[in-house]
Amino acid sequence: MTLILNILWLILGGGLLSGAAWILAGLLFALSIVGLPWARAAFNIGFYTLLPFGQMSVSREELSGRMDLGTGPLGTLGNIIWFLVIGWWLALGHLVLAAGYAVTIIGLPFAWVHLKLVPIALFPIGQTIVSTDVAYGPRYGWRR
Fold first, then answer.
1. Sign of CA dihedral 48, 78, 74, 116
2. Of 81, 55, 65, 78, the residue nearest 126 (C-alpha)
3. What UniProt keywords apply to this chain's record, in alphabetical order (predicted)?
4. What string of DSSP letters covers 67-120?
5. Euclidean distance between CA atoms 32 and 106, whole angstroms
6. pTM above the 0.70 mark?
7. How far apart are CA 77 and CA 59, in angstroms?
8. What is the pLDDT of residues 88-129, one digit of tens each?
9. Model confidence over 46-83: pLDDT tens digits?
């Protein structure tokens, strides 16, 4: 089912265009040394935007159990800068798109995707994209 939803998302939900735009933004961020932390965040959002069904964004610290550069104080500072400069605009855009898709029953899955993209659009540094099985496993004691 996730494959079908991802294909429909790419074609009808704007996922292909959005994902390509995020990957291009990541490449532009990577051109400057200052933009490197945000480049990784843009790539994460881009790949998540391409195939959002069956995946979710989780904190790397929560997943691995240890702090790294992006989940520590520097990551927090990077997230604050991101939020002030562009994050809240992106989140607002996803909320507007979610409201637009939620008007129709057929658009509800796409509205859900836009709501899933709001947290990572607000604070992307220190996040990683994993399958829902991996994400929910540690939270609820599931073992593979």
1. negative
2. 78
3. Cell inner membrane, Cell membrane, Membrane, Transmembrane, Transmembrane helix
4. --TTTSHHHHHHHHHHIIIIIHHHHHHHHHHHHHHTTSSTTHHHHHHHHHHHHH
5. 41
6. yes
7. 16
8. 988 898 899 999 999 999 899 999 999 999 999 899 888 888
9. 999 999 999 998 888 887 777 777 788 888 998 999 89
